[in-house]
Amino acid sequence: MQQPPQLPHRRFNPLTGEWILVSPHRTQRPWQGQREAVADARARYDPQCYLCPGNVRASGERNPPYSSTFAFTNDFAALLPDTPSQRDGSDLYRWESVAGTCRVLCFSPRHDLTLAQMPVDGIRSVVDLWAAECEELGRTYSWVQVFENKGAAMGCSNPHPHGQIWASGHVPEIPGKEDARFRSHYASRGSTMLQEVAERELEFGRRVVVETRRWLALVPFWAVWPFETLVLPKFPAARLEELDGGDREDLAECLKRLLVRYDNLFETSFPYSFGWHGAPYQAGAHRHWTLHAHLFPPLLRSATVRKFMVGYEMLGEPQRDITPEAAAERLRSLPETHYAEES
Question: What pTM was estimated for this model as a whole?
């Protein structure tokens, strides 16, 4: 694999068919822009938190005294299951109604923990919850989107460790693009695109951040965000619920080792948007799909300086300053003991 030079160049994203501009020389420019606030330490329990065990939520419902994970239908869901089917098919201004549901997934009863700070067995419980929710919702909906927005910088309105699932009767734009690209790759090459990616990245090595027995976490060749990563299985799997007990345990270890590195990078609770893409729940074979997770963290230079997608990114194409290889090297070199435990 020939590596691009340390000069401005474009890289192709085979998952979406889009390009990204890479400008390695821009990391030296001075920064006088916005700096993010660093979150203070939190208590183990917050009596005002809508997600803590036993507390009353905004809807008036009371949470059970849960001791592991807890899931419930979002009190202010963006999608509703009983939306009547309607559409307007005019050529220019088209619309159609959407039915679905939104779930909130509490990762831990403790208000002060994040996935990075949870033990591996606690993360394994979260993996099991993701899989169970996907299996249940996939019986009704075409797409099940598991995700977590962590930190105020990523729009999270409640610091209690939690994620969400939005399930819908349609396949959204981004996974729809992936599905088409995966299908085309499989038809022309007879192999799944992301299994090829995993094999090539293992051989190349420089973009791999964490490798366990069954999983890989790497900075993709086409990464947009400064320390973006992709989590891939080293075995065929299309959906979370297909993972057996060993796969799930190993995934929990992989996530622990990756997320601790994120926090250690700038010694802060690293914000990110994190989500799983698995095969849509539609009729037909899904041999072209590989289950994978995207992690999009915004921090660029420190705990207070983030990357903004503005100007050229909104009007032209995404652009990044630090190369994916350099980002992977920085993450890979970090210790696997959380900085808060060391101190």
Answer: 0.93
